[in-house]
Amino acid sequence: MMLWRAFKNYFSQAFLNLWRNRVMSLMATATIVFCLFLLGAAVILGLNLSYVSKQLEGQYEIHAYVNMSYSEEQAASLKGKIEAIDNVAKAEFISKQQALKDMEKSMTESASAFEMLEGDENPLPNTYNITLKDVRKATEVVSSLKTIEGISEVKNRSDILKRIVSMTRGAQIASILGMLIFAFVGIFIISNTIKMSVTARSREIEIMKYVGATDWYIRWPFVIEGAAMGAGGAILAYIPVHWGYSRLVIWWCETVSMFKLCTMNELKWTIILTFVAIGCFLGAFGSIISIRKHLRV
């Protein structure tokens, strides 16, 4: 009961101080909004780079060519062995006749030239287009494919693979670095903004210390005050992020068809929870840093 009464007192003091120092509080909240807006941009960029990387991974394929002496039925029977290999997500069988038709469609101007290649004259091999669960383990899959009797050749575009893996790692590193940089900048700016508010009440803090108030009794209202400013800043920062990113996704869908971006609905709760958590942390931590020297009386 005493603990509840104490926290009730802390909250009442915190919100009373917010009202009394509303100009400084608005400045601190505006700073949090700015920092979270930049942080949100870094988070969205990182999440979308990872999302695009996954799309690239899904498009990456290994091509396994079946021995020319195998009939279409024999070639098709290898599918079970290929899909049994660890890390193989899907093995799509492309018959030599289907491959010829696909080539004919892509070269409509020379379609007549393909007529003489039909039937036994078809020089194309039966092929498997293989997608992986994890592209980083492509080398192991290639080695396993080469051991299957009837597979004459395996093509693995290692240059594309390296770019995909590099892009995925780069996306993760860029996202983490962006968040860390903006978090440190946010703490610095917010602590200095809140410091002005704390300095204006330094006399009040000194009196409380002299009458025997503990450090945490003095500190808690400022911590709650900072967290409240952070939560308010998080809500205000989310509005332009939601509005701007939703329109970016619409423009992207209409303009770029190669890759998709995460929709706002997919990111909404991630951004909201991240903003509130980081906003409250920045505000509270900034308050703790700012009040520290005023407690040394």
* Uncertain residue segments: none
Tertiary shape: elongated
Oligomeric form of this entry? single chain
- The structural class is alpha+beta
Helix tally equals: 10
Produce a short descriptive summary.
Strands 2-3-1-4 form a 4-stranded antiparallel beta sheet, sandwiched between helices.
SSE topology sketch:
Layout: H1 2-20, H2 22-59, E1 62-66, H3 72-76, H4 79-83, E2 88-94, H5 96-106, E3 127-132, H6 138-146, E4 151-155, H7 158-200, H8 202-210, H9 215-255, H10 264-291
Helix pairs in contact: 1-2, 1-9, 2-7, 2-9, 2-10, 7-10, 9-10
Write structural notes for this entry.
The structure is a single chain. It is built from ten helices and four strands, in the order ααβααβαβαβαααα. With 297 residues, it is an alpha+beta fold. It has a four-stranded antiparallel β-sheet with strand order 2-3-1-4, with helices on both faces. The longest helix has 43 residues, at 158-200. The mean pLDDT is 77.
Describe the structure using short key phrases.
297 residues; alpha+beta; Alpha-Beta Plaits; 2 domains; 4-stranded antiparallel β-sheet; 70% helix
